[in-house]
Amino acid sequence: MKGMARLVRVAAVLAAVAAVIYPSSVALTKEPLAKDLFGAEKLPAVSKPQSFGFYSKGCFSGGVAIATDGATWQAMRLSRNRRWGHPTMIKLIERLSKEATADGWPGLLVGDISQPRGGPMLTGHASHQIGLDADIWLTPMPDRRLTAAERENMSAVSMIRKGGLTVDDRLWTPAHMRLLKRAASYPEVERIFVHPGIKKKLCDTVTGDRSWLKKIRPFWGHDYHFHVRIKCQPDSMGCKPQDPPPDDEGCGKQLAWWFTEEPWRPATGPQKPRPRDIMTMASLPKECRAVLDAPAPVSEASVTIGGNGVTTTAAAPVADPEEPGSASSDVAAQPGPTVPSVPVSAFTATPKVKAPLPRPRPER
Questions:
Q1: Where do runs of H (alpha helix) occur along 263-335?
Q2: CA-CA distance, 338 to 320, in Å (whole number)?
Q3: Cα 51 from chain centroid (whole Å)
Q4: Counting Cβ atoms within 10 Å, is residue 305 exposed (0-12), middle (13-18) or buried (19+)?
Q5: Bridge-based pairing state of the strands 304-305 and 64-66
Q6: How many CA atoms lie within 13 A of 295 on its CB side?
Q7: Residue (of 309, 307, 311) closest to 348 by Cα position
Q8: Largest CA distance in the chain
Q9: For the ranges 35-49, 177-191, 196-210, 330-344, which has the lowest average pLDDT?
Q10: Tens of pLDDT along 60-72?
């Protein structure tokens, strides 16, 4: 036993000496944060559209982007590169933007959806990781195209009274209610997160059919935008669903709790680190490693759903016959499921034509 103890002490001393002499070797053993790996990806994984894991701990493949401009929407905060999502999510946003105009809403200002391959973000959201979440501003789209600088710096307008918890009636309109009702009407939508004050306003004022109110869920923040969450899609066996919301309007005791001191009481004790600040790849579904390693499409334009409702064709990099070791046809894009109203799949092989050029963005 004494001999064994001595060996342990010697090993500890040698390890300490090695850490002093070769500090870089010790640093190399530290696994990188998942947010840094996913945040560095500029384009999606060319593969069948699938979500892996949960909304706040996962990733996705086969993503497409919503165009920066459509007839009835404009994308905001373009520098974040968070216009990506599962094709069903992107098409739902496009559909909502069009159908909401019939309800008196002039068009959507689209906030964050997901990073190209999902995963934890460098800043901001805990969720939005599997391509099934999207933020829509409660500020109506203006009747002109915003410049790139305006999209970066323009502030959304809070619907809540300053220093209070209830809606500012000078800002809230019946059109806001109709927009939320329209979004909740889609069967794909499972939840819509709003500020508790907005939920209370709906509970107090909605007449007639109130069944859609169960999808409207109060949550911290969400005073200047609403957060649409759709269900795990049938093509995603690795997606972990959230429990369905309670089958009632949600206007009773659950809502009343938000108007007590408890939800707003400052936390005490040492502050815990945010999950994204400690989450490594080991924390995510195993499929997320393959998502990171998957090839990228030829360009952003090739996987962008444009304002004309058409998704252009995408493919993985094509082999250069004069450069050994370049990408080959065995990593060509796999066909994905058909997306409603999109005439081609975003993941079929690219014909031998020039790649489509990106649509011009507004000048700064």
A1: 287-293
A2: 30
A3: 11
A4: buried
A5: parallel
A6: 19
A7: 311
A8: 83
A9: 330-344
A10: 999 999 999 999 9
Q: Which of 163, 97, 87 is nearest to 136 (CA)?
A: 97
Which amino acid appears at position 32 of this protein?
A: P
- Between CA 69 and CA 154, with CA 111 as vertex, the angle to 5 degrees is 85
* Residues shown for the chain: 364
The tokens of 289 are what? Answer: 């490693």
Instruction: Locate all alpha helices (DSSP H) within 133-252, ordered by sequence.
Output: 148-153, 174-184, 196-205
> What is the distance between the alpha carbons of residues 246 and 223, in angstroms, rounded to a whole number?
22
Least confident piece of the model among 247-256, 263-272, 334-343: 334-343
DSSP code of residue 108: E
Nearest in space to 206 (alpha carbons), one of 251, 163, 171: 251
38, 292 contact by CB (below 8 A): yes
pTM of the model: 0.77
C-alpha distances out from residue 231 to 32, 218, 350, Å: 30, 18, 30
Rounded distance, CA 131 to CA 84, Å? 7
- Residue 116, exposed/middle/buried by CB under 10 A (0-12, 13-18, 19+)? buried
Q: How many CB atoms lie within 10 A of CB 99?
A: 16
The C-alpha angle with vertex 298 and arms to 296 and 299, in degrees rounded to 5, equals 100
Q: DSSP character for 233?
A: P
Q: What does the alpha-carbon distance between residue 99 and residue 341 come to, in Å, rounded to a whole number? A: 14
Structure tokens at 23: 């500090």
Going by the DSSP 8-state scheme, the letter that residue 289 receives in this structure is H
Environment class of 42 (CB within 10 Å of its CB; exposed 0-12, middle 13-18, buried 19+): exposed
Q: Residue type for 110, please?
A: V
> 10 Å Cβ neighbour count for 69?
16
CA 248 to centroid of chain Cα atoms:
27
Q: How far apart are CA 13 and CA 35, in angstroms?
A: 35
Which neighbouring-strand residues pair with 53? 58, 239
Rg, C-alpha atoms of the chain: 24
